[in-house]
User: Fold this.
Amino acid sequence: MPLASKQVEASGTQSVTISFAGFNRAWAAWIGDRLERRGVHVVYQRWDPQDDATLEESLQDLMLAPGRILVVLSEWYFQLGPRSHDEWNRALRHVVAVDRERFAAVSLTTSALPAAASVFGAADLTNVGAAEAERRMLVSLSLPTDPLPDQADTRPGPRFPADTPEVWGGVPRRNTRFTGRERLLGDTYHAFQRAGRGAGVVTFHGMSGVGKTQLAAEYVYRFGSEYDVVWWVPADRRALYRQKLAELAPELGLPTGAEYGERLRAVRDSLRRGDPYSHWLLVLDGADEPEHIWDLVPTGPGHVLITSRNPEWGEHNSNLVEVPVYSRDESVSFIRRRAPRLTPSDADQLAEALEDLPLLLDQTAGWLNDSDMSVEEYIELLAGGIDQDVVKVSADFPLAFQTAWSILLNKLRETVPESVDLLRLCSFFAPGSIPVRLLKDMPSGDLPEQLAGLMNDPLLWNRAISQLRQYSVVRLESHESSGDEVSIAGESVYLHRMVHQIIGKDMPERDREEFAGVVRRALTAADPGRPIDSRQWPAYAEITPHLKWADVLNSADPAVHTLVLNCLRYMYFSGEYRAGIKLAGRAMTAWKELLGETHPRIWDLTYNYANLLRSVGNYEETAAMEQAAVDHLRRERGEKDLEFLRASNGLAADLRGLGKYEDALELSQRLVNSYREILGDDSRTITAQNNLAISLRLLGRYEESRELNRRTLDKHRDRLGHRHGWTLSSEINYSTDLRLLGRYAEAESLQARSTGMHHIVLGQDNPQTLLSEHNLALCLYRGGDRTAAESLFTRVLERSERVLGEDDPLTMMFAAGQSCFAREHADIDQARAISERVVDGYVRMLGENHPYVAGVRSNHALILRNVGEREQAHVLGENALLDMTRAVGENHPWTLGVAINASALRNLVGEPESAAALTESVIARAAEALGRTHPLSLSARIAYAADLRGTRDRRRADKVESEALGDLVATLGAQHVHTVSARSRNRPFWDFEPQLI
Assistant:
C-alpha cells in the first residue's frame, strides 16, 4: 500500500523514518510492520530527489523527518535522479558522515554502491530469513531484539519480501529501469482496497507503447507480497487466455484430471470461493477486446488487473486507470538512467523529439548510450525522415516511431546481424507472446542456411536475444530462469505490437517467404493431430493465433492444409465458432485460387466451414454449399464415394435446420445404409446413425430415435470411453429421448451424471456443456424439481448469452425454455420480454414458415393470455396451429401440443364447443402417434375434461378426468406435479421446445 505515518500507542514511544526507493516499497512495509509491533512510531518517506535540487539539499530535507532515519539501501536508491557515484560520495560525506547517529541502514543488494555508502554501516539483509533479517534491522537501530510475547499483536502483516507468494506464475521479469508512475500505482492500490467482493477489477488503458504491461508488472512486484496467489495470463486471445488460466489448477492444488475443461472450471470456482486462497491477484495482459473475454474474468474476494488499449472495459465492472505518456520529468529521469552519458538537457531534447513515449524512449536511449552519436545529430537524422514507402504504421503510433525504428534497425544490423534475422522470424508469429520453443523443436534439416546457424548455435542465439533485450525490442518470457542467463527450454519471447507491425514491412521478399516457411513448418510440427481431444485444446489454442501471420492459407504444402483443417475442427468442438468462420472463409477464398475449385482439399474445407456456419444458424448458406458439393461429387465420383457421403451428411443437417424433416430423414436413412455397406460398423456409420436418430426425433418419432441413440451410445462408450466428447453428446441425445417419452426419472439420472462429466472434460462454457445443462434443467422441471430447474435455466441462459451471443441458435433454444418457465413460475414481464426476443430471432434466422417460429408463437400466445390480452392470444394461437400443421403435418406431436394451447385460447374467447372438438381430435391423434399414456396424450385428456365442463357435459368430463388421473398415477406417480395439478383441475398447456438439429 502507499505508505503513510502510523502511530502505535506505547509509553516512551520513539520514532523511526524509513527512507526507501519506490522499487523497495515491499521491504519498507515489512520493516515498518515489525517496528510498529514493538511500539515504534513509523514514518514512511519515499526517496525521490528532484532534478533541480542537489543531493546535499535532498538529504538535508530528509533529516527534517522525526526520529532516526532508517535508509533502505539498494542500487535503485542511488539510481533515482539519476546521479553519479561521485555526486553521491560528496553528498554522503557532507551530510550523513557529520551526523552519523541520525542514520541507520539496511542493505538489500550485493551490487556495487557508491564508496561513501559505507558510512551507513548498513545491516546486510540479503540471503537471510525473516527472523534473522528482523534481528539485524533492530540491531542497526539499537533496539531490543527480544522475541515479542505470544499475546502481542496477532494481526496478519505483510509477507517477508524475500518470500514469494504461495503461487506465482507467468509474471515478466522486473524492469530494473522502471521510472515514475507513482500516482498511478497508488491510485490502483487504493481502488483495489475500496472495492467490494467481486468488484476488484482495475484496467490500465492507453495507447500502444505507453508502458501498460510494465506498469502492471511493477504493481505486482511492489504489492505482490500482500497476495497468496499472483498469476499473469496473456489475454489478447480468448483461447490462449482460457488455456493459461486452466494451468493455474495444479498450482492451487486442485484435485483435477488432465482435461482442460475440468481444470478451467475448477480454477474459476476456486477463485470465486476464495478456497484455498482468498488473497489472489490475476493479471490479464493485452485484453484489447473485452467482448471476447469479459465473461471469463473471475469474481470473488481477489483482485483482477487488466491491461488494454480499449476503454470499453469500463462497461464491464472495471475501474479505468488511464496510462498516459511520460511526464517530461519522468522522461528525462528515465532517459538518464537508460543512457547515463546524456545530460539533462540532452534528455529533455530527446524526450521532446520522441513525444515522451516510453517504449520509444527505452529503445532509442538504449542504443544512443552505446553510440558516439550526439542527441543533436540523432534529432537531425530523425527530422530527415526515411523513405515513406518503407512502412505505414497505425494511426495511434507517434509519427517519430517510424524513423526512430529504422535508425535502431540499422544499429542492430551493424552490431549483431543475427538479431535482425531473429526479429524478422518473430514477425511471422502473432504479436505478443511468441512460442520460440516451437522453432527450437524443429528438425535442423527444415531450416534454411541463413537461419540454421542462429537456431542451432546456442551462443549465437543467446547473443541475438541479449542484443534485442538490451535495446528493449523484445522481452524474454522464460519465467523459470533466474538472473540474466537465457534459458532455451520452454522459452517464449514477447514482441510488442508496434515493433511487430513495423519490422514486418521492411523485409526483402525472398526473406519474407523463407522466414514464413520456417514458421509454418514449426506450427505444423506442433500440431497434435487430435482436435476432438479436449486434452489437446491448449496446444491448439497456442497454435491458432499464429496462422494468419505465418500466411498458412497461401501455402501449397499438404501438411499445412492439414494443420488448418485440424485448427478448424478444434474451433468447432471447443465452441470458438466466430473465429473458426473467419478463418474458414479466408481459407476458402485462398484455396480456391491456389488449388482450384474442385481440389479434394476444397471438400474437406467445405465440410468444416459448413459445420461452423451451421452452428450459428446459417442454414441457407450451408445448404447451398453442401448441395453444390454433393452435386459435383455425385457427377465426378458417384454415390458410394466417402467424400460424397460426408457432404450428404452435412446436407441432411442443413435440411433439418431448414425444417425439411422428411427430406432429411430420407437422406439420413440412405446414408446409414451406404456407410454400413461400404465401411461396416465404422465410426462414420455410427455418426450417420446418430444423425438419423435426430431426424426421427424432429419428426416426433421418439421411441425409434431412443432405440437408435441407445445403440449409438453403447458403441461410443465401448469404443471411445465414457469421457469422450462424442460419448457425452450421445448421452444428451439418449436422455432427451427418454424425457420426450415421459421417462423423466431415467432421463434426469443419466443427464445429471453426464453434465458432471461435461464440466470435467469440456469445461462449463463449452456449447455442448451448456446444452447438457439445459437438458438437465428440462429434466428437473418435468420431474417436478422447479427450484433446481429455475436456477439452472437462469445460469445456462446467462452464460450462453455471454459466450455465444443472443442470436446464437443454442441461446435462443435456452431462452425459449427460460421464457416458458418464467411464464408459469417466475416473472411474467421477464417471460414476455424474452419470448418476444426469441420470436423475432427465429423469424430473422429461419423465416416465417419454419416450425420453430410457429412453436414459439404458440408459447407467446400463452403469455399474452396470462397478461389479459385474450383476443391477441387467440389469434396468435390459431395462426400458430395453422402454421405448424402446414410445416409438419396434423399428427406431429408439435402440432398436437400447439392444438392443446389453441383449444384453451378458444375457451378464453367463448368458443367452448370448438375447443372441446379440437381437444377430442388431439386425443385420438396423440394416442396413435405417441400412445395413450404418453404425457402429451394425458395432457390432452385432462384438457378435454376441462373443455367438456365448459360445454356443461359434466358427466362425461368426470369420466374422462377419472380415467386420465388413473393413467397419470400409474405412469408418473400420485405425487408427481402433473398428477397433482390435474387433480386440482388446472388446465394443462404445452410448451414448445426447439430441438438440436
Summary: The radius of gyration is 35 Å. Residues 577-595 form the longest helix (19 residues). The CA atoms of residues 85 and 114 lie 5 Å apart.
